[in-house]
Amino acid sequence: MNMTAIDRIFSIFHEFGHVHYGEEITQMEHIVQAAHLARLDAAPDALIAAALLHDIGQFLDDAGNAAEQRGIDARHEISGAAYLAPHFPPAVTEPVRLHVEAKRYLCSAEPGYRDALSRASELSLRLQGGPHNPQEMRDFLADPAAPDALRLRRYDDQGKRPGWQVPALESYRPLLEGLLLR
């Protein structure tokens, strides 16, 4: 059988979706919740896809265990965006690439944002460089993908609800197929 890019991505999600990486819910629950939040927000298809795919880098080279087990930042946002880039347009991959910078930005820009982070997000924040300094904030905002990355970050932060039943991974296949680069 010839696997498509989406088949390979879904295979990765099914292989590693049971892990928690320090959160109360599994990674599979997290990604479908983030994508569902994007749907509820009437986000464009590319941003819904980014919400679904934003953590694929966690599953490449055991990056998801890097913070808790090895005390390092494996830069899952960079490896994930690079993995997706041959298959999806920048409207999908750029918010994925920037979702960690969006967290760092929000920690500096919004009072109380950092206090609401999950324990795992707080640990990774420290390893990822902490809150932005003023120059990093300006650089981030200058990126054309920053607004979508900020929206993605909100879905990421809110998509961590134990017991919340949302549509399954497979329900996103048609959306992803419509975004594939030909």
UniProtKB/TrEMBL annotation:
**Which parts of the sequence belong to the HD domain?**
30-103
Enumerate the Pfam families for this protein.
Answer: HD
Q: Which InterPro entries does its entry note?
A: HD_domain (IPR006674), OP_Dioxygenase (IPR052567), Phosphonate_degrad-assoc (IPR017670)
**Annotated organism of origin:** Novosphingobium album
For this entry, the protein name equals: Phosphohydrolase
Task: Give coiled-coil spans as residue ranges.
Answer: none
Q: Which SUPFAM superfamilies match?
A: HD-domain/PDEase-like (SSF109604)
